[in-house]
Amino acid sequence: MTVSAELDTLFRPMTLGEIPVANRVVMAPLTRLRADQDGTPGEMVARYYAQRAGMGLIVSEGTFPTEASRGYLGQPGLVDATHQAAWAAVASAVHERGGQIVVQLMHAGRLTHPGINGGREVLAPSAIAAPGTARTEAGKERFPIPAALTTTEAAGVADQFVGAAQRAVAAGLDGVEIHAANGYLLHQFLAPNSNRRTDEYGGSPRNRIRLVEQVIDSVSDAIGPGRVGLRISPQHDVQGTLEADPADVMETYGTLVDYVSRRGLAYLSILHRDPGGSLVQDLRRRFAGSLIMNSGFASATTLADACTMLRDAGADAVAVGRAAIANPDLVERWRDGHPLNAADPQTFYVGGAEGYIDYPHR
Ligand SMILES: Cc1cc2nc3c(=O)[nH]c(=O)nc-3n(C[C@H](O)[C@H](O)[C@H](O)COP(=O)(O)O)c2cc1C
């Protein structure tokens, strides 16, 4: 059988910064809400990730660096020694199967509620509530009006990411992905409609990217840039974070991507509905490092989509979400042309083993 050039590329090893990966299929970060009540990822979580170690790189679900930044009940954290020990078990389980795993560090910002983060204040760039509801201990509640971080508190956010990144490396994880996408805190700083600040963190694109740069800098200084990735989702317009002005988007993300390029991070991960379109292609041209792409939620990534992103859109690797949930052995299935299990969206966020660790291997 002749294998097409793109298929060949998809299954070829590469290195992302300091992280050697066996193929270019990246397990996308996927919130699954199976951690213990205190945010400890238990034995079942380790098993879930170990089952998926055949993917070149696993990016964990969004994980909170501090209690106040927690966005979901059932979400894992990386706040203390108990969390760290549990993540060490996850890392070993993945490494034993020959995989690599980084943890996605996610500060929820305004997308949480005192009924989720242990009664703590909800913090954001500006005192503007997100639309919609949070799922709290007491049921669905409207997102509260957050307190705007003071300038000193905003500067302190970088230290929170550093603490979690150091615990990640101490746990034996292969690195961290900084979550600046999908409407969470760092994206709230980037987007003009959620950031109305008048200090050095608000206003111009230059100011709105400042906190993301500071987080990148501090985390890179702490654990080395070759173990740090960044995820962005320009124009995702999700969870109330809107980026409506294309010129502003280009300037904001262009400046940020130039910075990431200079810092030499392990990778940049872009989620955008049109990877071949002018915005992503412009970012691709100005980014010197490894680029992971994902085309968003409209339809689940297929093998053909992955090949197109590699061949036509300049991706170095592809982040795969729903197909990776449903197919622990996705790489073998894609490589050998086997049919796929279908993902069951009813079990994405509900807790328990069903729809989590019971998708069949071939
Ligand atoms: C159940 C679920 C949970 C997700 N959780 C996260 C997350 O924690 N962090 C993140 O950056 N993206 C998250 N995403 C987005 C995925 O990483 C990915 O971009 C999206 O699923 C589209 O890729 P796909 O078509 O291959 O599924 C999530 C998506 C799904 C379906």
Structural account:
With 362 residues, this protein is of the alpha/beta class. It has a single domain (5-347), classed as TIM Barrel (Alpha-Beta Barrel). It is built from twelve helices and 14 strands. The chain has an eight-stranded parallel β-barrel, surrounded by four helices. It is globular. The mean pLDDT is 97. The structure holds flavin mononucleotide. Flavin mononucleotide (FMN) binds at residues 28-31, 61-62, 104, 179, 181-182, 231, 271, 294, 296-297, 300-301, 319-323, 348.
Alpha carbon gyration radius: 19 Å
The proportion of residues forming helix, as a percent range, comes to: 25-40%
CATH architecture: Alpha-Beta Barrel
Q: Tell me, briefly, the overall form.
A: globular
| Helix-strand pattern | HEEEHEHEEEEEHEHHHEHEHEHEHH
Please give the count of helices: 12
Strand content: 15-25%
User: How many angstroms separate the termini?
Assistant: 21 Å
